[in-house]
Amino acid sequence: MIVDRAVPTYDFQILGPFRVCRDGITVALPARHPRMLLAVLLLHNGEVVAERRLLEQVWGHGSGSTIALRTAVSRLRSWLRDKAGAVASIEHVDSGYRLRLPPRFIDAARFRAALAADSDTAGLDPHQRLSSLMGALEQWYGSVLDGAPDGVREDPAVRALDDDHAMCLQRLAALAISVQAPELLLPRTRALARARPFDEPLHTRLIELYAACGRPAEALMEYERLRSRLADELGVAPSADAQRAYLTVLDQDPLGGFERVHGAGWGRTIVPHQVPADTADFLGRDKAIAVLLDHLGGLLNDPAWPAPLIAGVTGPAGAGKTTLAVHVAHRLAPMYMDGQLYADLRGTGNAPESPARVLGRFLRALGVGKAAVPDDLAERMALYRSLMNGRRILVVLDDAVGEAQVRPLLPASSACSVLVTSRSRLVGVSGAKFVDLDGFDTDHAIQLLAAVAGHERVIAEPDAAAELVRLCGGLPLAVRICGARLAARPRWPLAALAALLRDERGRLDELSIADLTVRDGLRHSYSRMNEEVQQTLARLARLGPVDFTIGTVAAVCGLDHDSAGRHLGALVETRSASVVDNGQAGQFHYRLDELVRLFALDPRA
């Protein structure tokens, strides 16, 4: 079948922004409701579309009426008579409407005709097929009815056209590879694949296009992105077709692909630099920095030190553990000339990372081709330690949940060092040096607020600034959130935000902006307590911001002395409570963290 590509007298375009042209000149579309009515009818040209469906898509649920629909149809008919003459008409059939328009005047119909023609003539010369399908692809100028309301774009016919578009690109990709012209389709296939993240056939063709263009590393990375996305979002593995494409690339790329990205193919040792960027407005923590630098840097050249140096940063949620660890890692970079590995262990999330998965990423970063990474955890650990032996590499393990997660990731070489962050001390990790973080003192908290919100504003309202950081308990995350909220509203007085935070019932709700929120970290710590400790925390929270002893816990919660001590120990371990002083006769006094106390009053919020 030969498709006429000449510009029709009339051209109704829905494969992109909605347009209507006459003799190549764009004509003004009717008002909103008649225009969207026409769009829906074009999607179903020649079919009866029920009135109820038209009302739902054009006006929205429960918004339109039969009278409004008939009025819009009448106006659309007048517009069609004026702009398209006798070419198009709208019929009322039973309880619906049907548009009659020759298919050659609709870009979607011409596109589908070319696609069907290719199916009918699949045995043609690939160059002819490529030319024909490229003509079909030229009908597309964007997504279907780009800019139309969601009600219209959610029509199943839109999804069907999108699927046909992807099918066309898949055929074209295969044809382009067969005629050795993969560059012709790579940009458009890549763009559509980004818009269809779970379209495995399309992503498979993209992998093949990358490989055919001589870009195996990008082909392997594309497969890895697809594999991770399917595993994380759907819990499934890539299709057999995608896996075949991946293995084909590996066979053609003896280095396994990853080395070429980092230049190992040119005879250089891979030097990973995985630590995230340092914080531009980092301040304070001088004592903690000195301890970490002294431990991880000062002992590095000691020939008598028999094991890797291990340091840890502990503290409550929002204390800035990750920020400190990243800052120290950058300070230590010159001493670890063989690189830095970094892993977010997601210990405070619902699904902590498995050591096997992290080791797989570390091995690939150290130059092991993906196909050469062992499946067995013990084999991964052995290969990891072999590759790390004798190399000066700093391993940063962020947000660890416990010792069992960390131990498999520890190198054996004394030339390496490890920096771990965790909510609690990992006492089972031998030889580790830990620093504990609490909230900022008032001066450092105000400096952070000024760095984020603006120094002039803080100087202008010193009392309000001091009150803000006090209400935040000096917690860096809470102070940063306040600064960000103020920065987003340049004319908002600091006193106004302080007034909102004074209300204990709403303070945690106010300490939130974008993806930063204090409540999430508190919720995770709370979820790690058993139910009895949670009940103890709730009873202590109702006492208010006061100091208490083990005797107080026992009396308020109806516990014996030993049980009260265990509950209090759990609260201290999760950084929900802290020691205030040792009181008289060695009796320790404790206090709940203020934000923890507010959370415990209503943990379900």
UniProtKB/TrEMBL annotation:
Domain Bacterial transcriptional activator: residue ranges: 106-250
Segments passing through the bilayer: none
Keyword Transcription attributed: yes
Family: Belongs to the AfsR/DnrI/RedD regulatory family.
Pfam families: BTAD (PF03704), NB-ARC (PF00931), Trans_reg_C (PF00486)
Lineage: Bacteria, Bacillati, Actinomycetota, Actinomycetes, Streptosporangiales
Key words of the record: DNA-binding, Repeat, Transcription, Transcription regulation
OmpR/PhoB-type domain mapped to chain residues: 24-99
GO molecular function: DNA binding
Species whose genome carries this gene: Streptosporangium brasiliense
Protein name, per record: DNA-binding SARP family transcriptional activator
